[in-house]
Amino acid sequence: MRRRDLAVAVSLASLSIALGVAFSLGGVGVIPAKDLRGLATSVLENSFNPWSPNLTAYSLNAVAAVMWDYRALDTILETAVLFAAVAGTVTLFRGVREPPSSRLRGLSVVVKASTRVAVPLILVAGASLAVHGHLSPGGGFQGGALIAVAPALVITTLSIGAIYVAGVKARSLLKARYSALLLIALVSLAIPIAATVLGIRGYVLQNAGKADAPLSMPTWFLGTPLAGSVFIFNVLELVAVSAGLTYCILLMAVKMEDIESSLARDEVYE
Amino acid sequence: MGLVIVPLIVVLVFSFFSVVATYLAVVEKDLMCSAILMALQGVCYALIYYTLMAPDVVVAYIPVSSGLLPIMLLAVLRKTERYEK
Lengths: 270, 85
Fold this sequence. Notes:
- The complex is a heterodimer of chains A (about 270) and B (about 80).
- In chain A, about 65% of the residues lie in helices and about 0% in strands.
- Chain A has about 270 residues and is an all-alpha fold.
- Chain A has a two-stranded antiparallel ribbon.
- In chain A, helix 3 packs across helix 9 and helix 6 (about 140-160) packs parallel to helix 9.
- The longest helix of chain A is centred in the last third of the chain and has 29 residues, at about 170-200.
- The termini of chain A are far apart.
- Chain B is an all-alpha fold and about 80 residues long.
- Chain B is about 85% helix and about 0% strand.
- Chain B has helices at about 1-25, 30-50, 55-80.
- In chain B, helix 1 packs antiparallel against helix 2 (about 30-50).
- The longest helix of chain B is centred in the first third of the chain and has 26 residues, at about 1-25.
- Chain B is elongated and about 50 Å long.
- The interface between A and B is medium-sized, with 37 and 33 residues.
């Protein structure tokens, strides 16, 4: 037993030392590359470069520029994968209704109080990740996943009744998700539709204006680069991902007896 | 030279911890402990990504691996049994 305690202590100590070292040298990188491949060079040179207006995305974060401008179709398909997963969960839980009211139980006072402090911080951090997605690391999916952690935390520590008390309805979450997805599709088609109306050329998922397609998304806002469709897609993806994941968590957290009773009631109706 | 060696050592240490956590998560009979060990493994991977200069991946990986996945597993465990036979 003493040897086991010693092993636990040594591993905890080395874990904390390693954590400290890792946090102190974040971003230094293992092997700083001397020369870049052609694709990386072109992305780094063009993702924010107002002097090359045909190729730039006006996005300081090169990853966001690749995700929502240069390779936006891949990200649309990724969103479609998440759409299919959430639709499958919804189908699996069909007929399950939320209980009208539920008692508040939850864990100890300390855990509850720290959750009350942590939840607003998580919400703000998630929103800021998505809104600043074109300026710093982050983006719509990251922010949405972080926001979905907050209701999961509330369900674990304060029980699912707290979510109902806060007024979050599963049905309205689903509505928010589908309207955000619809808006993503509309924004990606906005420029070709407007260009057709004006009688000029425009591309699907186009962001900045090109030489042969002059229409452009808003690229600057109050002297800050806005990155046009990158920003819009990040915000819409934030809504879609956070609503979808929260909906799945809400369904999974419904108590077993509530599921059984709502399913039994359905059979009576049939 | 020192700047190149130290991050390599950090990556090695966290890979070691992640392998240990994964092994313990597989053999553990208490499935709640197993979910928490999975979260520890996710934190190790996130720090490896952070050292490898991939902050975008870290920001997506932390909420999914150490926030949503263990909590979903706990929610599922409540509906089934906590101990594996």
